[in-house]
Amino acid sequence: MQLFSREAAVRRIVPSRALEGIAGLIESYGEDPERIAASVGLDSEALYRTDMLVDPVKFNGFMEMTAQTCGDRFFTLKLAQIQGWDILGPIWLLIRSAQTVGEALTVLVDHLELHSQALSAFLLPEARGASICVEVRGLPNTASAHYASTVQVIELSLAICCYELRRALGKSWRPQYVRFRHAEPEDKAPLERVFGDVLYFNQDVNAIHVSRADCDAPLARTSDINRDLVERKLDTRIDVGLPFVLRVDRVIRLLINGEGCSVGKVADALSVNARTMQYRLKQHNTSYQALYDSARMDLARHYLSQSDLSVAAITERLYFTDAAAFSRFFKAKTGQSPRNYAKLLEKPNSEGP
């Protein structure tokens, strides 16, 4: 069973429940949600049903196109107000059974990829707390501008986390700080209303930082939740080998933000030897190099289309030896040099069309 192609792009694995409430919100702008869905090839039935599986590329494109069509750069911040962790299905029940906020965040990042393999999440320990980091994975190299940008999905994911944490920690709660990979919009006031006023852009992660005290804060438990039953239900939804591939991919995306990664470092992080890791990945028609290349391509496309970083800065951030090596890698994947890609790709206006 092939889980990842050479581009590590898994198809049709975003549950349609992730679109809950979006049709009504679009209509409030005076726009037709079905017309927008058709423009990106998304089955309009997914807007009204919760039992469908949606191609993650079309899902991401739909979010970007909707923001543009509605003329609202911050469309998904509004969508986050009417969604919540309940769109995660059984995972939400596990989160509700956590004893502390920190445990709830751990449950979220450990199980998010059972909800959608298009998203990767991890907790990054930092001074005085931890950051919950979210990434979009596996967009194709031939993606158009609407598919290349992941701003709407990232801001939606982080905003939902903030609103849920606010329910647990109080209405006045805000993260200590928030980091975005994309560039700063001309008007960041809508982001400040959701996330607070300590925002950083052009960063190496998309993350919200939660203080140690907030992580240790108790979370009201729901006594009728049978944790073991829920976990068994989750286990039946995926192939037994899939979590290992996703864990490798997650570790790669974590280490690439720090001191860089290698086969040995990733294997050590997973407590296996390098040969065993490579063998297990080969069983699923992928490899460390394929996952590593895919992660670097995801980040390269994002930085070129959404950040203010120079090619030289991207080269350094993605651990290429020099700009020429980065250019060769990127051109082999896309048929274009990084600079040409950036020029040809229409960048979304920070304030909408």
What is the beta-strand fraction?
A: 5-15%
Q: What ranges have pLDDT less than 50 throughout 5 or more consecutive residues?
A: 1-12, 222-242, 347-353
Give the overall silhouette.
globular
Task: Write down the overall mean pLDDT.
Answer: 83
Largest sheet: 5 strands, mixed
DSSP E strands, number: 7
What gap, in angstroms, lies between the N and C termini? 43 Å
Helix content: 40-55%
Textual characterization of the structure:
This protein has 353 residues and is an alpha+beta fold. The protein is built from 18 helices and 7 strands. It has helices at 22-28, 33-39, 56-69, 75-82, 90-96, 101-115, 145-148, 151-169, 189-195, 212-216, 227-235, 242-255, 263-269, 274-282, 288-306, 311-317, 323-334, 338-344; strands spanning 14-15, 53-54, 119-126, 129-136, 177-179, 199-200, 207-211. The protein has a 5-stranded mixed beta sheet. A hairpin with a 2-residue loop joins strand 3 (119-126) and strand 4. Helix 5 packs antiparallel against helix 6 (101-115), helix 12 crosses helix 13 (263-269) and helix 15 packs across helix 18. The chain is globular. The protein starts with 13 loop residues before the first strand and ends in a 9-residue tail after the last helix. The relative contact order is 0.13. Mean pLDDT is 83; it is low at 1-12, 222-242 and 347-353.
